[in-house]
Amino acid sequence: MFQIYLYTLEIALLSTLIAAAAGIPAAYFTARRRFPGRRLLLSFSAVSLCVPSLIVALGYVSFWGMNGTVNRLFGTEFSFLYSTAGIVIAQGFYNVPFITGIVSEAWERLPREQENAARLLGADEARILRTVTLRQLSGAIGAACIPVFLFCYFSFMIVLLFSPVGRSTLEVEIYHSIRTTLDIGAGAKLALLETITAFGIVLAYSYVARRSQTTSSGVDYVPVVRRRIRGSAVVFVPLVFMILIFLIFPLGSVFVNGAGELGKVLGSRGFWKACANSVKCGVATGAACTLLGFAYSVAVKLARRQANVLLQTIPVLPMAISSVVISWGATMIFHQGTPALLVALQTALYWPIAYRQIQNGINRITYETDAAARMLSRNPLDSIFRIYLPACRPVLISAFAYCFAISLGDATMPLVLSIRNFDTLALYTYKLAGAYRFSQACACGGIVAALSMLIFTLGKK
Fold this sequence. Notes:
- This protein has about 450 residues and is mainly alpha-helical.
- The chain is about 75% helix and about 0% strand.
- The protein has a two-stranded parallel ribbon with strand order 1-2.
- Helix 1 packs across helix 7 (about 95-110).
- Keywords: Cell inner membrane, Cell membrane, Membrane, Transmembrane, Transmembrane helix, Transport.
C-alpha cells in the first residue's frame, strides 16, 4: 500500500512540474509578448476543465501509439505511452493551459513599480524575473499548481489506460478493490489514506488562494504594453513546438481518426440514448450546482462574512474527495446506482466550481448598491430578485456552462456507479475503446470534446 501511495505522489508531482515548466513560460509570453495565436493559446485554458481526460488519452493513443500518426509518418514502432513517462507527459501537458491561464492573468495585472525600481538600481532582466516578478507571482503560481496536483493525484482514466504492468495509483487501486478483487477492507484503507492526504493539500490551497487574493487587492494596475518576441524566440519556439506535439496535435488527431466512423456512430441507437442521458444529467447537474453556488454566495454576502476563513474553506473541501471514492461510498449506502444519484454526486463535487464563478459576480456589487438594496427592499428575498440575480446573470450562465461541460465529460462516476441500462456519452466512448473499436471511440470522443468546448465557450460570452 505504501508503494502505491508513493507512486501516486510521484506521478502527481512530476505531472505538476511538467505543467508548471511549460505553463509558466507560456504565461509570460501571453502576458508580456505579442505573437500570432496568442488569443488561441489563452482560449485553451479551459481544456483541463471542459475536455475529458478520456479524450486526451484517446488523442495520445491516436497520435503517439504504436499505430498512431507519428509511427505511420516515420515508419517507426516508437511509443512511450504505457509507462510512467506516458502518464506524466499526458497529464502534465493536459494541465499546461490551466496554469497558463491563471498565471498569465496575474502577470498582466502585476504592478510595475518594483520592476522599474530594480532596473534603476542596475538589475538585469534575469535577476528582476528571479527576485521580483516570481516573488510577486508566487501566490498565483501556487493557486494554479495545487489544483493541478490534485487533478493528477485523483487521475483515473489516463492512469487506468496507460499504467505499466505492476504499477498503480491509489485511485485506480481503489477501483480495482471494489470492482475486481472485491477486497472492501483494502479499498477502504486506500480511500482513507487518499482522502486524508487530499484534505491536507486542499487546506494548503485554501491558504494560498486567500493569500493570493490579499496580496493583489488594493493595487491600481496599469495595462501592459506587449512587445514582440524577437530575442525570446530561442525559448518561445521550442515551447510552442512542445505544446503542439504533446497537446494540440493529439487532441486534433481524435477528430481526424474519428472522421471516417462518424456516420456509423451517429447511426447507432446506443449513441443517441447515451447523448440524451448526458444532456439530462448535464442540465440537472448544471442547474443544481448553479443554484447551490448562488445560494451560498448570497448567504455569505448578506451575512457580510466574506472574510470568514471557515466560510471560505467550506467550498474547497469537495476538492479533497475523488470521484471514485464518493461513488463507491454512495453504492455502499444505496446499493444501486441511479441517474438521480449520479446527478447528486456530481453536484456535491462540482458546486464549488459554480460558487467560484458566481462569487466573482457577487463581489462586483458595491457596498453602496448593497446597502441601498437592503434599505429599499421589503425583505432579503426582494433584494435578491431585484439586485443580485440581474447583476449575476452572466456569471450564472457561465457557472451553468462550466458544470454542464464537466458533467458531460465525466466517465468515472457512471463507470463506478454501474447504473443499469444507462450510458452517458463519456462512458459510451470508454466502452467503445474497451471493445477495441478505436476509430468509433475517437468519433464519439470528438463529439464529446466539441460539445464540451462549445457549451463552455457559449457560457463565457
